């Protein structure tokens, strides 16, 4: 896999934030309007859930479960744990419904609940070792071996190794950096929403993401052909 082709697959959240300019085109405005409409629909459903409407709750889960499971999976690097935490998130949504008030975007409120539960899980993991080193080695994904008789096998292997290294690099980040990277890079949430979810100021969030990006690039330097600083 060449450095040029690697650059094409480099996730946006490893690159510096582009300078923002005043919007001059309508597609972004249309996307913002769609996002606002989606959030309004979620709020409308949540207000029905507040009244005990189970159908509205089921629809709310359908709309957001994929994003929540994906976020949890990225944070925990375990799909089974991600499903468990996501289930807890929606249980908490149901139980919190009687006290729900429209004070922020629905996704902000939902990701704040997710943050609390995911951080609880990561801290629980850090307090006790769930498996021995030997078990971890046994459970590791099987090693990939290139079949040089297949065209493009080396490039496919390089891509697989890169994305595996990226996953491990994200997993190695401190929990707040990890969640900020996921919310900004994978979910494309605006800074203001991430500030609310992480309970941090805008400068603090930008600094957090800057440090996270530097750490990710250090971990991936060998794959990107860069010198480790």
What features would you describe in this structure?
- This protein is mainly α and 229 residues long.
- It contains 11 helices and no strands.
- The chain has helices at residues 3-9, 26-50, 54-76, 79-96, 106-127, 133-139, 153-172, 175-186, 191-198, 202-219, 221-224.
- The longest helix has 25 residues, at 26-50.
- The radius of gyration is 20 Å and the shape is globular.
Topology, pairings included?
Elements: H1 3-9, H2 26-50, H3 54-76, H4 79-96, H5 106-127, H6 133-139, H7 153-172, H8 175-186, H9 191-198, H10 202-219, H11 221-224
Helix pairs in contact: 2-3, 3-4, 3-5, 4-5, 5-9, 8-10, 9-10
Please supply descriptive tags for the structure shown above:
single chain; 229 residues; mainly alpha; 11 helices; disordered N terminus
The multimeric state of the shown protein is single chain
Secondary-structure content class: mainly alpha
Helix content: over 70%
- The mean pLDDT is 78
C-alpha geometry: globular
**Largest beta-sheet details:** none
Radius of gyration: 20 Å
| Counted beta strands | 0
* pLDDT < 50 runs, ≥5 residues: 1-10, 19-31, 143-150
State which percent range the strand residues make up: under 5%
Question: What is the tally of helical segments?
Answer: 11
Ends apart, CA distance between termini: 23 Å
Give the helices and strands as they follow along the chain: HHHHHHHHHHH
